[in-house]
């Protein structure tokens, strides 16, 4: 087999070995009695794959997504702020295929301002809708265990529909894969139910301020496991700690259960990140949306039996009180349904956002998302906000922004070394 690279870098011509002996520069005109078999010349031209539908709420994606957000989208590896494709990324301008031929990589098109606005707009909108209707439902039906279970159930049904209609490729399920998911699903369950408990006890804005302290737990736990961070990262978590502390002591709706719920949620999601990085390295071929769907299904099996034990005996009476408070049963059903559907959608949207934009842009957008959600919920529910409380919230969120910048710089330096 002989490979000839022509002047065009995008075309490779491969000649099959022949028993005829002709000069390599011979042309068909000089060989009138010779016919080249069609199978002897193989033209390899890079083609852009057709865009596939991945059932994203705001359109199409040209490649599978890679991340899971609870979710808060900051997972390393599986849930990291850096997307992971189903195909390995090229380490240089081109890489060899199995036949030893060089195939150039197709550069990713740059996202326009209009596309970026649409991505962030829909992501923020879905997150705001979830937080508003989740809180509305919890105000009249204060049973977070059941509501959290329903949100996982809604996401599970959504994914089953996508798989059955072939709008999303169904993952290959194996026993090792299920075993590897058990740990991340457990910590995801802990993070999700703890956040819902916090939402039921305090204002949504306060929960989000405390949840902005997740980087603090991430740095501390990862450091215990041997990972090192530059001084800029450690300095960036100081304003997060100070801002959250100031917001907590000045919060009008302060409740100890609400505070602990938000803190435990941070711990759960951080441990999920770390555990996922260790246990799911052998399943990189499964894209992030499928991983999130599988984790939602397993988390539902974790959570619902415990929910029945914790508050199941109060659901019937609570349901009647909720209907009496709202007036129309359909209104209550509508709130619960929106909280479940948009919980899944805003996580799904975060995956596509990661697929379309850089990790640094995503981290900045995620920080601004908290600001938008906090402001929106304060306006909708008319929560009283003291000046010091607003200052503490702003300092904490600014610290989160500094952390995202510092960690992004750390990743760039690590990539340059590699």
Please tell me about this protein's structure.
The structure is a single chain. α1 crosses α11, α2 (144-164) crosses α3 (175-201) and α2 (144-164) packs across α10. Residues 1-105 have low confidence and may be disordered. The chain has a three-stranded antiparallel β-sheet, with no helix packed on it. A two-stranded antiparallel ribbon has the order 4-5. 61% of the residues lie in helices and 6% in strands. By secondary structure, the protein is mainly alpha-helical. The longest helix has 31 residues, at 387-417. It is globular. A hairpin with a 2-residue loop joins β4 and β5. The chain has twelve helices and seven strands. The chain has two domains: 2-44, no CATH class; 113-417, no CATH class.
Write the layout of secondary structure elements.
Blueprint (H helix, E strand, L loop, with lengths): L1 E4 L6 E4 L25 E4 L7 E5 L2 E3 L32 E3 L5 E3 L8 H28 L3 H21 L10 H27 L2 H8 L2 H11 L6 H19 L6 H24 L8 H24 L3 H12 L2 H28 L2 H23 L5 H31 L1
Antiparallel strand pairs: 1-2, 2-3, 4-5, 6-7
Helix pairs in contact: 1-10, 1-11, 2-3, 2-8, 2-10, 3-7, 3-8, 4-7, 4-11, 5-7, 6-12, 11-12
What's the gist of this structure?
This protein is mainly α and 418 residues long. It folds into two domains: 2-44, no CATH class; 113-417, no CATH class. It has twelve helices and seven strands.
What descriptive keywords fit this protein?
globular, 6% strand, 2 domains, single chain, two-stranded antiparallel sheet, 7 strands, disordered N terminus, three-stranded antiparallel beta sheet, 418 residues, mainly alpha
